[in-house]
Design brief:
60% helix; 167 residues; two-stranded antiparallel ribbon; mainly alpha
Length: 167
């Protein structure tokens, strides 16, 4: 990996994903002198996995080019799930009047998850759009499903030509 030859899109997605993953271990909820809770609880684990998947997908492929369509769509989906969960968590805390207890890690994770989506979308290849991205993702999944199905239909060679059954 040569960080200097990477495209802006990949760099920003990787940086945002790394910041988001680090923020999962920082305080999300502060209880004053009683302590704090980090993001590795509840839906925070899904946010962590979404950010990790987005980072891995941004790392895959030719790093001197923008993220390919199917990987771009996967990056948007993984980052989008993380961002939606963070916004949901924010709204839930807002309705409960608990914004004052939210810690630094929460705010960093919220910005990082939104940053993954924005970086993947804003720095995309000019021809990339959602329709083509979904079509490419569907085609890749279909190709992989067909290749695993075809490989399971091979003859095992158990018929050796012996007409007498074993005793």
């Amino acid at each position: 990996m040569n960080f200097q030859t990477m495209t802006k899109q990949r760099k920003f997605v990787l940086i945002a994903a790394a910041i988001g993953i680090i923020s999962m271990f920082l305080p999300w909820i502060n209880f004053g002198f009683l302590g704090s809770i980090n993001g590795m609880h509840g839906e925070g684990i899904i946010v962590f996995l979404g950010l990790a998947v987005a980072g891995v997908l941004a790392f895959m492929g030719d790093q001197t080019k923008n993220i390919e369509k199917s990987l771009w769509m996967g990056t948007l989906i993984a980052g989008g799930i993380s961002a939606l969960l963070m916004v949901y968590y924010f709204i839930r805390m807002l309705s409960n009047g608990g914004l004052s207890v939210l810690g630094f890690g929460f705010w960093l994770a919220l910005l990082a998850s939104i940053g993954v989506v924005l970086a993947a979308y804003m720095f995309r290849t000019p021809g990339d759009n959602f329709k083509d991205g979904f079509d490419s993702l569907k085609k890749d999944i279909g190709t992989k499903m067909n290749s695993t199905t075809d490989s399971g239909n091979t003859n095992s060679g158990s018929n050796t030509g012996n007409t007498n059954p074993p005793l």
